[in-house]
Automatic annotation (TrEMBL), chains A, B:
Pfam families: YiiD_C (PF09500). InterPro entries: HotDog_dom_sf (IPR029069), YiiD_C (IPR012660). Residues 12-142 form the Thioesterase putative domain. This is Thioesterase domain-containing protein, putative.
Length: 157, 157
């Protein structure tokens, strides 16, 4: 998928926010490859930072990168809706199917319906929950899935 | 709980193995505080490496540290049983209850029965699965739980 100039700027901006506020995103060597309404793609190399004892991707790095994909996607949704809210992960289930060999690619998307309901809930109740499924692949294909529940609440300021 | 000299050596040895083989354990600033048959305790500071945008512990760091507690505990079990096997995480569900403010403390234990069944399965079938629950706390108390499924298989050498 080709990114527009605005999408490239938004991806670079989110990458900057992650690097400035979550130091782990730097040690994970994370790149925000693309970002647009309802979809995101993050990538990181396996070696040298994210390797495990078997020479494949460390389970914790796979989790961290996929959690930042889900969080980054919804953080961007809130920005687009011009809502200032705290956004946290309340729960996640990750399933590893096959080892990830070369590159950790985390992709997530949400439908417009799901996005609209989330924003409406948050505006009405001051809080809202949303489930995001992140597909994690390497060059060979789909290797793991992380299903995360995110919780947003209006800042009490 | 007071550690014996052997337990302190075993803890130091596991910490060395983690640092040498999983670079993330260094950036997580992980310490193996105690290790003995059936129980482990890992710790890491929140700031500066494991902080998030809210100034509390990053969800990915909490996951990584708790996954290394589960993995380290069973890696040690395999060493004690003198079994050479590959050990991986196949699935995990993490629930975050409250933010972790100062220190990430990950503790896991397994009963002797569970340990014995796991080792017997592995010896009989060349593979075995085990569920480990990791309790994650900070100085104020229990804040999150990670329930991991580990899979061991004999090395084909």
């Amino acid at each position: 998928m080709i990114s527009t100039l605005t999408e490239m700027q938004d991806a670079a901006e989110l990458e900057y926010v992650l690097q400035q506020t979550i130091p782990a995103s730097k040690t994970l060597e994370l790149t925000v490859v693309s970002l647009a309404s309802g979809r995101i793609r993050l990538e990181a190399p396996v070696a040298p930072s994210n390797v495990n004892i078997h020479g494949t991707a460390f389970a914790g790095s796979i989790y961290s990168i996929s959690s930042l994909a889900a969080w980054g996607l919804i953080f961007y949704s809130l920005q687009e809706a011009m809502i200032i809210a705290d956004l946290v992960i309340s729960e996640a289930t990750i399933r590893y199917r096959h080892p990830i060999v070369d590159r950790i690619i985390a992709e997530a998307s949400i439908t417009e319906d799901k996005h609209d309901r989330f924003i409406a809930d948050l505006e009405k109740n001051g809080k809202a929950r949303l489930v995001v499924e992140v597909k994690i692949s390497d060059e060979a294909g789909h290797q793991a899935t992380n299903t995360l529940t995110l919780f947003a609440s209006n800042k009490t300021q």
